[in-house]
């Protein structure tokens, strides 16, 4: 409790407090408090008057209960009553309660103000002090309104006691802080300034605080304080330590006042009057000299006080920035502190040096300490000191030492504390950019940065690298080479992958000449990182891939394969899926010209302020960081700065920052991840831009046939095909194929018996006798002679197919040097892609060899590929060539539709070249079921009840090729009497119509 | 799986600490103290999650019991275990207090070793535990006894040992209910439910097979008109049984049959919400006379058979926070203003059914500068009545012991009904 005179001990309060302290639980405490509150309420009930002592006691208890965290909603009146007491202790408790508990909108405020007014005019210094303290403690706007005029009067009145003046000055300071508009100094200014000359040092100290605050607000009015402050300072500095008696603290004369005066002087530029200026310089020199003197005491308080004055003096020197000798001396003094064993001193020295480094006079002097600072960075135990060291290195960096400093910071980064890594990364990035002489060094530095501390490299940093690389032609090749090399590391950070993806996507062609970094290798390298990356990075990589398609047409197939895979086209992430679908379509539809235009190299970025610098500023907040310092100081000098000072700062700002200032684009306007956006998918489908003329006619079919379109949007991925290869019966996703096979079993078994047995020939012609049997089915024996039987099993889905070729050795001897290859003649090569997996070179007697062929239909075709087989049987070389039954109809997908739809489309395909009709004689019996099975085996959906004549057959489907989908409608009209058929086919493409008609007519 | 179990006193000092699993470190002890016991705000949730560790606590007077786990356990299981733990401790050394825990810490560790194994709850039946964990020091048991204990603990009926013999076969059945009510000032029931327990204390020889019957609506309806003795049936909302009850039989025919543990056990727990007999009706009358005075009149009416006597009646009338004085007049019992609890407490020792009693109080208020109105908390009541407010009746409890030749008639049975107040509140 506050000082209570003896015999006035308030026993009740002490008992209450000890009761509370002895409570075993919270509940017990609440009970005790409730009891006490009820007691106080009954006492305050008002029917009997309380004496001052008990009032004070109960108010005190209420205050205590309030401070324990309970609500108090009564007793205010009693507290206000206490204010008018004549006893100091009662008044004191009253004021205490008021300043803690009374809120500004209370009804009692007028009573309180009245009591305060009385006390202020009481001439009793203790009462005046209590009142002033209360005003300052409450400090509300209401208080300011009521007393803003009163307090300055007390402050400057001639007959006021020193202690009251002190309180008044501080009270005014507080009011000035809370509501500056109400405190008008006007007429009092000169007299307040003269308080600096007061005899009483306490008054001077309080007044200095007040004047400093006021001077910051209106520097002109208080300009006269400079000379007084300098005079006062010099008196203190030059005084013997014993002169000031009460104000000497551990042999240092009035340290607090000195510090405050030095702060006050920092509000103003160096004094213009030579004499004052000389006196100030003298003071500062004395302070610096004193720092060199041996300490007068071993106590820590002595050195603390001395150093406080010293550091404040140094910051004044830095602020004035006009006395080179002082600056250098300050710098040297700080240099000594750099190795001081006191951590706080090292911290402060580094901090002050940071500001010194930005002064042109002391910059060189600071640079001499670079080794010490680097050493501090390495050996310092305290992380905050290390951070200051980083700041200082950043501040002292210039063109001459940039390489050294950046290298040191990079090496420190590996061991740096996690909390400051990001900041260091930003600083390194800025320095590397600012002082880059050649950009290869810059690229190296940033890549190292990503390698060492990839997690802390914010987006801005790597955006910046890309901006610079794109804007500087001369580094592009080097950058591409470097990222390519960096990416070869087994584990690299995602940011590196981003940079790598972007740069290779743009400039991969610059290094493609080297066989070690050929397009395919570049792509494989990027793609090897793909699966480990997050979604935004993957999105960026997809963009890089599409750029690759433009840069290197030779890898188009590989990339399309990747884009087509399920993990892309059916990715759960909508962004990735969209990109994959759109890029895939773009790459397969657009001509190279269009691709080149769409995927052109990025134009140079507009040059703005560095986004990294902005980020660093945001991170540290204004006023903390040294790039900001320039601005800060400019502000300060604007308050009363001299011309030469502001010119130096602006010079300093413009020269090193010129490059930074002009190169930058904010990341937000152009985040590289999103830039190479493709046209949207709907645009692709509707735009007349499609370069293939037939595409235009295919589009309406696709659009009108809902299910077809879905199919088109999600082409079958190869992984599904693999699954089908092993289990043919589970072909739910490919109903026509399975239906076809089951229905065709009978036909197939018939045919097997009818296979002609051919005599072996050394070099035979291309065998195609069984070819037509495979038009409507997928499995069976393709070829057989005395030595060899070739069986087929195939699966087709959309434009992809897989064929299992079984070579059966019918002899008992081994076939040697067995080789089977597929040849696509001339035009077919571009239309059909057949890839044969290598098979064993030997086939044992009686054994079977399986070879897998992967087929991709690029566009519609007529010819069939040829399977060439070579093997050595008993020393003679055998050659067999068989036409592989890969026909256009294999890429048929059936489409179900209603009669109405069918005829609508039929009419849409009415152009003369789109229709092909053929009338032919039946070669087999005209059994309805067999015909149905054949049409379904052909791949089209058999539509029942579409044709008005029930004996006619109607089918519909879509031919899938890689480039286009062709909708097909067919109609077969049998004439049983004449044993004739009429077959009509309408497709969106004349060649397709013709080919399908030829194929199908052979079957009946 | 419980990772560890700690017992704290009210200051947060650890009295008992038993860690069962390696994933619970020593710092978990402090985490609970800092975040729950010494928390700035009172922690009301019984489950607290601190740094991926879950703490389940129950408080018994000033003692905190906390079970700790890092896994995703069944919280209901953990609490059931904690309550069981409390029961076991009470059965061994009476009230759970800091002093008792300190005096019996060896026993508690012994118990904890037995009832929790690697964090999995084991046999926590007091009767069974008492056969091999004793407070009377080590008594070397014969081989025979030891093997008996083993076979019992690991056997099918872990809660009862064989070969129990009593000269007098006796059985006590207590139906303990607590009735909860919230009533509007106009006398409208806003919510009411009864939660009850059937506690059985048996001193029966051998392995008796018991069958318990009550006036459960489903059973009565099933027996249909055959019984037709006018017995009122009750609808039980939900019930749980002691582990000795054969649940399959209950599910199939809703009959409660079991082999009881020796001594005391809680046979079943249940809850009803329909047709509750409210033993008391509270009629409040509050009148504010100006800003400084409040007049309160409360009438209580007992609403049961005049032959029955309610006991330990206590009515708690909250007073405003700015009460500065209270005058009370009551006809019956004693009433007093308790400042520490901000309430007038009116106590009546005994009251017969169908009676009425009233209290009137004059409360003086101190004017405050706070504009908040008094929230008028509800008037709450405590009592004890010798019947079951849910209407539950024990119809029979049959005992069969096929091996020893005593029959159902030889067993002396006692049934007692006690209805207590739970949260029994009336708004005013």
Automatic annotation (TrEMBL), chain A:
Residue numbers spanned by region Disordered: 616-658
Membrane topology annotation: Peripheral membrane protein
Compositional bias ranges of the Basic and acidic residues kind: 627-637
Subcellular localization, as worded in the UniProt entry: Cell membrane; Membrane, Coated pit
Gene3D superfamilies (UniProt xref): 2.60.40.1230, Leucine-rich Repeat Variant, TATA-Binding Protein
Residue ranges with Polar residues bias: 644-657
SUPFAM superfamilies tied to this protein: ARM repeat, Clathrin adaptor appendage domain, Subdomain of clathrin and coatomer appendage domain
One Gene Ontology cellular component annotation held by this UniProt entry: AP-2 adaptor complex
Keywords per UniProt: Cell membrane, Coated pit, Endocytosis, Membrane, Protein transport, Transport
InterPro entries reported for this sequence: Adaptor_Complx_Large_Subunit, AP2_complex_asu, ARM-like, ARM-type_fold, Clathrin/coatomer_adapt-like_N, Clathrin_a-adaptin_app_sub_C, Clathrin_a/b/g-adaptin_app_Ig, Clathrin_app_Ig-like_sf
Broad class of the protein's primary localization: membrane
GO molecular function terms listed in the Swiss-Prot or TrEMBL record: clathrin adaptor activity
Binding-site residues, a 1,2-diacyl-sn-glycero-3-phospho-(1D-myo-inositol-3,4,5-trisphosphate): 11-12, 43, 53, 57-61
Record note on quaternary structure: Adaptor protein complex 2 (AP-2) is a heterotetramer composed of two large adaptins (alpha-type subunit AP2A1 or AP2A2 and beta-type subunit AP2B1), a medium adaptin (mu-type subunit AP2M1) and a small adaptin (sigma-type subunit AP2S1).
Function: Component of the adaptor protein complex 2 (AP-2). Adaptor protein complexes function in protein transport via transport vesicles in different membrane traffic pathways. Adaptor protein complexes are vesicle coat components and appear to be involved in cargo selection and vesicle formation. AP-2 is involved in clathrin-dependent endocytosis in which cargo proteins are incorporated into vesicles surrounded by clathrin (clathrin-coated vesicles, CCVs) which are destined for fusion with the early endosome.
Protein family membership: Belongs to the adaptor complexes large subunit family.
Protein name from the UniProt record: AP-2 complex subunit alpha
Upper taxonomic lineage: Eukaryota, Metazoa, Chordata, Craniata, Vertebrata
Gene: AP2A2
TrEMBL record, chain B:
Top-rank lineage group of the source organism: Eukaryota
Family per record: Belongs to the adaptor complexes medium subunit family.
GO cellular component: a single term: clathrin-coated pit
Binding, a 1,2-diacyl-sn-glycero-3-phospho-(1D-myo-inositol-3,4,5-trisphosphate): 334, 336, 338, 347, 349
Domain MHD: 168-427
Gene Ontology MF annotations: lipid binding
Keywords linked to the UniProt accession: Cell membrane, Coated pit, Endocytosis, Lipid-binding, Membrane, Protein transport, Transport
Name of the protein in its database record: MHD domain-containing protein
Biological process, per Gene Ontology: endocytosis; intracellular protein transport
Subcellular location: Cell membrane; Membrane, Coated pit
Membrane association type: Peripheral membrane protein
Pfam families assigned: Adap_comp_sub, Clat_adaptor_s
Cited InterPro entries: Adaptor_comp_med_subunit, AP2_Mu_C_sf, AP2_Mu_N, AP_mu_sigma_su, Clathrin_mu, Clathrin_mu_CS, Longin-like_dom_sf, MHD
